[in-house]
Write a sequence for this structure.
DNA sequence: CCCCGACCACCATACGGTCGGTAGGTGTCG
DNA sequence: CGACACCTACCGACCGTATGGTGGTCGGGG
């Protein structure tokens, strides 16, 4: 390849003391890879880029990974596990279905805002994985989507939502509005994650609930 | 390159009569490119792939285009123009702000469902364009987002929405739920584009409107 | 003294892009 | 009416470069 090295000089030996224990390096690698995939996309980010950022040579990466695809899998897998844990824990708590729906949306949005980069990589590059590994992550049930759909369905069985609401479409609508956040949220923007989460949750709840149900929870939720 | 040709044999002359006039070929090229970008992404789809599908050699593509990026630009530009026309036309018609919001969402969703592939390419690959050309398409005002935000804002000025609704966030929420559709809509699925459009529109309107405004339009909109 | 963590040289491949050519149709002019 | 020029649409060989991936090597800390 003749150009396996970093752009410029550096002909002297790598500075001593940069050797790090495996675990630490591995975490660093995941972090750097996530960032690179975010900036350039999976195809656009080369192992060279990642190695450069880590201060290693490209070949050395293969001490930690088997292939580039494995790296993506690892990154995405971790993001999904975390996010799903947050969401399903919020959905499982106490309260009536509308309360839980509201809380779950807030949790999801806040988590996405605070983990913008990994979230973006997850939503963008999931499809860069071959189908098999993709479904290994999602679980064949498309779990994320199921959480919201099930909450709406449960609310509907309790008579808390309008009759013409389709829980499946409603769930996907909520997922869409919350998963869109990573595209426009800026930490230095006019709204905090909490505010955005509260707004989106309120819109979703009002979007599906009956007038009665809304009136009943009027004491808890403003206006 | 030595391997510029299609995978297998085909050593005989190209079947006669495949020559097409410029305009027709250009349309075909845009269509094939859109499809390939959809299937493999911009980076993943090679000019070789596109040429193969057209029954040409890669080099011949340069009779029609200047660069691969130009091709993407053309594709995305066309999609955006169409979609934006649909949406802003719906938003501009008669009716009170909530009516127009509802109609606009329906139009947007139905258009997206009926143009799944181009829509997906637009939403996925917009960021594969360099910033300059991206903004040339979007117009620096992020027009799409503005349409929904403005409709909500107008409704709010007319006292039709809850006071705590932030038009900016509401607009982005609507954009998110509608732009998510391309990820799950299937023509052979359980819902038609019209049904989905109506559902999402109803959720959005209920999501922002006051109880009074909803009661007032009860005659027009079910439940 | 061993083996961890990394170096370095090296493939094969595939890509975007360039360029000189050429077959066939069309127009033109004697 | 025929021959000659010219344009359109495409061919096919080629270039430079970057990429993912491999394998052999080696210093130094436990």
């Amino acid at each position: 390849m003749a150009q396996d090295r970093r752009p410029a000089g550096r002909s002297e030996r790598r500075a001593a003391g940069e050797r790090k224990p495996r675990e630490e390096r591995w975490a660093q690698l995941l972090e750097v890879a996530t960032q690179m995939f975010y900036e350039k996309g999976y195809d656009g980010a080369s192992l060279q880029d990642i190695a450069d950022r880590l201060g290693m040579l490209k070949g050395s990466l293969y001490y930690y990974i088997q292939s580039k695809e494995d790296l993506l899998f690892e990154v995405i897998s971790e993001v999904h596990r975390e996010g799903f844990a947050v969401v399903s824990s919020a959905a499982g708590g106490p309260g009536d279905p509308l309360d839980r729906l509201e809380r779950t949306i807030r949790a999801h949005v806040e988590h996405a805002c605070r983990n913008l980069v990994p979230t973006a990589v997850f939503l963008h590059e999931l499809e860069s994985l071959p189908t098999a590994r993709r479904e290994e992550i999602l679980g064949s049930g498309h779990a994320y989507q199921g959480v919201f759909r099930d909450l709406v369905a449960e609310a509907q069985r309790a008579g808390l939502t309008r009759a013409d609401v389709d829980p499946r479409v409603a769930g996907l609508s909520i997922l869409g509005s919350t998963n869109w956040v990573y595209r426009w949220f800026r930490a230095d923007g006019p709204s905090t994650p909490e505010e955005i989460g509260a707004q989106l949750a309120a819109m979703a709840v009002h979007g599906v609930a009956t007038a009665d149900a809304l009136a009943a929870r009027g004491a808890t939720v403003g206006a």
